ANKF1 protein (Phaetusa simplex), 690 residues
Amino acid sequence: KMTQQMRDLQLAQARKPPGPSSPNAAKRLYRNLSGKFRVNYTSFDEGSLAGRGEKEKLRKSYLFQSNAALFEAVELQDLDRVQELLKQYSPEELDLNTPNSEGLLPLDIAIMTNNAPIARALLQAGAKESPHFVSLESRSLHLSTLVREAEQRVNELTAQVVNEAPNADCSEKEKQLKAWEWRYRLYKRMKAGFEHARVPDAPTNVHLSVASSSSVQVTFWEPLSVNSAVVTKYKVEWSCSPTFSPPLGEAVIDKLKNLHFTIRGLVSGTAYYVQVSAYNMKGWGPPQASVPPFAIPSNWREYDGRAPRRRGQAEALDHLLGQVKTVHQHCVCHEPCKNQPQSRKHSVSKSLKHLFHPSSKFLKTLKRGLYLTAIFYKDDNILVTHEDQIPVVEIDDTYSCLLMQDFLWFTKVSCMWDEILWLRQCVTVSQSSCSCILQTRFKMLLAISQMQGLLGIQDLGQVFFEPVKDKQGNILIVTLKEVKTNQTFESVRWVPICKLQTSRKSVSSPEEPTALDMLLISVQDKLAYHQRSSHALSPGLYLGYLKLCSAVDQIRVLVPEQLPNILCHVKIRSNPNISREEWEWLQKMASVEEPVPAEPEAETTQNHLLQELQVAIKELMTLVNIPLQEAKDFRLYSQEVLDFGGQVSFLLLLPPSDDVCTAPGQNNPYTPRSGFLTLPLQIFELGEEG
């Protein structure tokens, strides 16, 4: 009898799946593992080979336990625990796609128990279905076998528990019986889920658009039906025939984070039909044709054969700059400069300091003049001198009124920080003309060189769009740069911004603060502006609003505070391409005298674009606080689509010609709500180029 009990116990242990199989046991495992999962592996002796071996064994043990915990969490339908494990471990560490002893994967259990939330979480993490289920028959047979074996084991253990007297072995048998009863119910539920499931319905909102001259993009949503099993993949098919005979190609999508697919390598000017179908454990569902039913790969430039505006411009400018440098290198006036040491472009030499007078240093106070300050920041820290001052150098102590043209010239120089020495040589040649403008600009270059030498770095960053001015006649030109590496600087150190603001002793009154005090008070706003200026738009087609206002010496453009390097805008769609057919339709709209053209035919790309534009215009008018009835006098800029790198494109919405630019003193009845600012046009252009 004891021999038979030992055999039964050994058999039960051999057939027991990894990890506990009852709800209570699973909960105990979660509690026990919660602390173990956070073990610090580096506490072991890395210098010992035996220690490394033990560490690897322990790591594998924990990963095995985490795999068992994932199975238990899926079986218990514990979504929170599943998400926690998927976040804590990689798919490889969890063995996410390695079958257990029953030939099942976590995703198999989730979809056969019809637990859609857990199934979606697993699919997002890259989970697959078991490769053992090559057909419906094989899956059905496998489930029937699991149910039959579990039922048989329950019957055997029930008989043993009933026939044996109460003892320690019997207590263990009762635990095994409860575990197998629970597993028997799980397998029956999985088998019933499979038998009652049906193939999925067709995907919904299948939309086809032209992505380029050689590609189209299809987007779609999940099937609406909630009665069928979880969809685990989709199939996209395309053909030149509406009957899909013959088919040209197909693609299976099993990464379901983004339900879209781009069909590439197509022939421009050819119509392509597309349909999409969904798959679950019962097979492929019916296909759903796209709307519109076909698309013709093209681009708006094909309408009149126009070349890209910027094609070859960068190369031409580089060539022109090279020619200018060559001419100046042979200039007699530059002979004394040839022996000056050339600074390296990407690393800073301490010899830069020898280019300047030994008394060159940062300023502590301002004495009515023009100054340059460089703000370097990293996280919440800012770079200051050893006297806890923001680095400031003098440009001109006799210059009390900064002309806008000089400031704009300085902003252009900021695109050539590495060429300051060469620019100084060029301006020096022209100083004989005694031009006040040239002398001021030469002093600007000297100040830049001085700042570069004192800091030990050439790139001073981006120029803030307006200088800081006080009533004492001081003017500060501010540059901003974020430091993301452990870069070393000379003669300076890092301090928290808040500490600098609270510890600085102001020498001015609150009514008339100095430019330095004004800078320190507003430094966080300037840093926020700088960070926002580097943000990029997500790929797509946008509707931009062009609004200018003029002053005596400049033209300014309206931009949003959150993205000051972009016009006021709303997103039309995620596809940035405008097809030839869409552009042709827009041209017809622009040429109509009365802006009430007949709507395009249904289920065409033109009709879809019209609907998208109507929604975007309403949203944009609300954004800039213009009544919608005023939009009837607005017009789309129909000369071109503004293309930014191929991933972002803009259509421009223009006010009536008399209102595009508001003149000084002109009343503007519709003032945008808060969240906007106006930038000098040249500053905006530099930011947009960046």
User: Anything to note?
Assistant: The first strand starts at residue 204 and ends at 212. The domain at 207-298 is CATH 2.60.40.10 (Immunoglobulin-like). The chain has four domains: 57-196, 207-298, 369-534, 540-591+607-688.
